[in-house]
Amino acid sequence: MKVIICGAGQVGYGIAERLASEGNDVSIIDQAPALVQRVNDMLDVRGIVGHGSHPEVLEEAGAKDADMMIAVTLHDEVNMVACQIAHSLFDVPTKIARVRAQSYLENRWRDLYSKNNMPIDVIISPEREVAEMVLRRLGLPGAFDTISFADGRVTVVGLTCEEDCPIVDTPLKQLTELFPDLPSVIVAIVRDRRLFVPHGADQLYAGDSAYFVAPTEQVARTLKIFGHEEEQVKRVLIAGGGNIGLYVAREIEIRQSQLRVKIVEADRDRAVEIAEQLNRTVVLHGSALSEEILREADAERMDTMVALTNDDQVNILSSVFAKEIGTRRSLCLINNPGYSSITRSLGIDAEINPRAITVSSILQHVRRGRIRGVHSVANGAGEVIEAEALETAPVVGRPIKDLDLPDGVRFGAIVRGDDIIVPTGGIEIQPKDRVVIFATLEHVRDVEQLFRVSLEYF
Question: Same domain, yes or no, for 305 and 376?
Fold first, then answer.
């Protein structure tokens, strides 16, 4: 696949890194020579210095025979115009744009992105994606990662096995015997920073991070079996009243009226602005690094601190301070992946990486086969994929045990009509089944091949 990426920042670099590692032909455009030089030095891609929405620059990048345009510069308007030119002048089949300003995303303007107006096939909104992830994490306080698939019917949860986890040192195959009616499947384990797909003889150890797949209504029960019986969140303290913080607070007011929310915002004008847009949320002007402000915000009584400022260091330190004061849990937004290795040692319970979320959203549209959803885990070491089985796909009509799956692939759930089925060796995938699968990075292509569609289908 030939892909042009406009924007060589964190998101653009992350996408280029992933696509290039999979053998795609990638060109990346940016106005900053230093960023383009970094891309050329570090990745097997073609870097071009220039403006991503200028026709001659797109032409130089190979737009005439490109399969996809991904516009992820810092400027919404550049991303939108780049997609328009890619369509109008070069007939690029698939165009993806990152759009951050919420006014562009209102439902009443949805016709703006039709082929007759501004032909963008996929709109990616990092702020909205991150905010929705925060809301899901608040709903499952025992998890450090949570992703919904199959229209919300299946959930993938990442959790940490604590010292008191009831099922540590128990072979996984015995869990099926102990809980025969529990439709949950452990699809991946991270141990000592190594991600692997477990077998029946493997055991969970204290300190492991595990990912399981379960019907959404069975997630709470599964968390309980792992020893996670955290009380539901009732009081939330948000550090940072930017687009993400405002979106989270507003959606909590709409969806969860029983939650009490307070926001700490350092900029006075912004604090006044968001206070006028919220009804029940208390907005405090001050620094989230100030113990006085945190105490004024009742941090000692809060169930969760959510740090969502634009500064990673402020997010990390404010989370640590809040927990020292008495906040029970902390959730921290971190842009720099280099900080991920220290968050747990500082007592931060969970983190959110905006780049990883945005890259996951885009990978869904890059993957071959009928892929409905993708979520990258463990800093890109693996992916959870939702794929639809069409009639001519190689996966259809064969028992799972006969598919010769590599060690790095594990089926987590099969959604068939109104039923959610636990995959076993004798189960055959049927046309229109939606399958949730985990794959380590080196085996993602194997999953794509299983669900590829032959030309006869069309």
Answer: no
